[in-house]
Amino acid sequence: MPATATELALAALDHVLSLVREGVGAPLDPDNLRHRVWAPALAKAELRHVRIHSLRHTFASMLIAQGENPKYISTQLGHASVQITLDRYGHLFPDERRGAAGRFEAQLAAARPSSIHPAEGAEPAGNTVEQDGVTIEEERTPGPAGNTRAGS
Fold this sequence. Notes:
The chain has a two-stranded antiparallel sheet with strand order 1-2. The protein is built from six helices and four strands. Among the domains are: 1-50, no CATH class; 51-95. The protein is mainly alpha-helical. β1 and β2 (134-137) form a beta hairpin. The termini are far apart.
């Protein structure tokens, strides 16, 4: 039965750490690790070939999907600055523009008294005339050359 990618990665890491714990003493040879540990682990788990370095990208992608702070992710990946992380993985971060616009609109709506409609308080479109205690608003109609005039 195939193992999950996480189980596979943990098993491979455990094997590498056991080599270090057993006092091999010399730095691990990447080719040796790939051929003697990684490839057999993939075969045993019935998984397709995946580069070891792909685990690094998977790790970064999973942290981003969890909503972790970019500075934390940068530190975990060993990048010299968060800009390197953003340049490499920026396309994976959620698009903040829509979220920011929505938050801004919500803040404006919360600041506006609910009894006032946004269109209220605007200048009337025409002239206002009061006759017999009744306010009458005359519409502006377009005149020649795009000018507007009241009550034609």
